[in-house]
Amino acid sequence: MRAALFGVALLVCASVAAEPGRWTIDYASSRIAFTAEQAEAPFDGGFKTFEADVRFDPTALSESRADVQIDTSSVATADKERDGILTGSGWFESEQFPRAHFVAKEFAKTSDGYEARGELTIRSVTLPVIFRFTLKDAGGRFELHGGADLDRLAFQLGLGDWADPKWIGKTVHVAVTLIGSR
Amino acid sequence: MDLKNTTTRYGVISQGIHWLIVALIITQYVLATLAHNAEHDRATHPAAALQQLALLARHKSVGLTIFALAVLRLLWRWYSPPPPFPPTMPRWQVNAARLTHYAFYALLFLLPISGLVMSAASNYPVSYFGLFTIPNVVAPDEALKEVMKERHEMLFDILVVVAIVHVIAAFKHHFVDRDDVFRRMLPWTQR
User: Fold this and answer.
1) Which of B49, B133, B142 sits opposite A41 (nearest CB)?
2) Considering the domain boundaries, does residue B3 fall inside one?
3) A167–B47: do the CB atoms touch at under 8 Å?
4) Over the range A117-135, which residues count as b (16 or more CB within 10 Å of their CB) and which as e?
5) Would you state the pLDDT for residue A42?
6) How many CB atoms lie within 10 A of CB B7?
7) Which of A42, A100, A108, B7 is most buried (CB neighbours < 10 A)?
8) Could you tell me which residues are beta bridge partners of residue A35?
């Protein structure tokens, strides 16, 4: 009985010890980018400011966590007019909804990488999102590349006059590059 | 009527492209004006921004069409030279006519190119009527976009001036000189 309790205590300790540490993100080389469609042609953009609290370890998937906050007013598409529309009424409405938020606590191995099953909040809408990614580990320096396809209408981005998917595509592809170390 | 130009008349191809370009340039002016008006309405009517986007998308597709037609017309001109000017025309008028025609070709190339560069500079890749996409020809650059916008509008003003000279000259040939120069570009007149 004592031995068994000791064993359980050891296991608990081991699992606590195995909780992955927070990555130190190299923001200068990390990107949250997207490709959307407008007037039947794709264009790209990104978010300049975000904060990623990533505690991911491929050897400790069940303890891995990710929490990413994106500053919606930092949206940048190389055109001031479009950026102004995106942060304004009917889109991100950054004054009212300054941040988008992604939280993932479930991670799984896939055939070619990993997936994070989490929840993404944009404006006041929270929806489940599966974020698929690959990980390269070069001596403790991680390079994560991943993406997800989002339905902008489901997140209430561009409703009303902007809703027509012919002129503004329904699907937005988000591509994330995170460079970090532990 | 001949497909090719003859020594006295423009053929079907040259006439067709000529009048098609005329119609498309008028279309371009209408689309650009409507888009410009939509831009002004944006503050009061949110739908105007989407209208502006759609109008400009069509403006760009029509512009690419004009560019392609100008290339075709130039190639056809080389393959099938236009009828010569009447021998009665004074030298300065022949030179003025040539200058006007070359100016038209230059404008029909430069207008779409400046528009395309403007689009690329503001990171708006251009779709041709939703059929295919022209990737950005230059990297996004807001200053370059402003310069190209100015040039695009200036080139259009020049086009209007050249077109007025062209039309006045055509009418002068028809009503004053009473020669064939205007009529040989008209599809419904036989000589």
Assistant:
1) B133
2) no
3) no
4) ebebbbbeeeeebebebee
5) 96
6) 8
7) A100
8) A44, A173
pLDDT class of A118 with cuts at 50, 70, 90: very high
Between chain A and chain B, how many beta carbons pairs sit less than 8 Å apart? 58
Alpha carbon distance A96, A24 (integer Å): 30
Residue A18 pLDDT level (bands cut at 50, 70, 90): low
Strands A114-122 and A50-55: unpaired
- Per the structure, the complete domain to which residue B33 belongs is given by 12-185
Instruction: Give the residue carrying structure tokens 């020049």.
Output: B158
Calpha distance A155→A150 (Å, rounded): 8
Q: Do the domain assignments include residue B7?
A: no
Confirm if A74 and A86 have CB atoms less than 8 A apart. Answer: no
For residue A76 the two structure tokens come to 């940048």
CB A57 within 8 A of CB A63: yes
Whether B142 and chain A come into contact, CB under 8 Å, resolves to: yes
Nearest residue in chain B measured CA to CA from A167: B54
Which positions in chain B touch A78 (Cβ < 8 Å)? 122-123, 140, 142
ipTM of the complex: 0.84
Q: What percentage of chain B reaches a pLDDT higher than 90?
A: 90
- In whole angstroms, give the CA distance from residue B13 to residue B39: 38
Q: Decide: helix, strand or coil at residue B3.
A: coil
3-state secondary structure of A19: coil
pLDDT at B128: 98
Tell if the CB–CB gap between B124 and A90 is shorter than 8 Å: no
| Total number of domains in chain B | 1
How far apart CA B103 and CA B166 sit, in angstroms, is 11
| Residue-range domains of chain A with CATH | 20-181 (2.40.128.110)
How far apart CA B85 and CA B5 sit, in angstroms, is: 13
Residue B158 has φ and ψ, to the nearest 5°, of -65, -40
Per-residue pLDDT reduced to its tens digit, A128-173: 999 999 999 888 889 999 999 999 999 999 988 899 999 999 999 9
Q: Does residue B190 sit within a domain?
A: no
Give the Cα separation of A69 and A47 in Å (integer).
Answer: 11
- CA-based nearest distance A122→chain B, Å: 21
Test B122 with A78 for CB contact under 8 angstroms: yes
Sequence letter at residue B51: Q
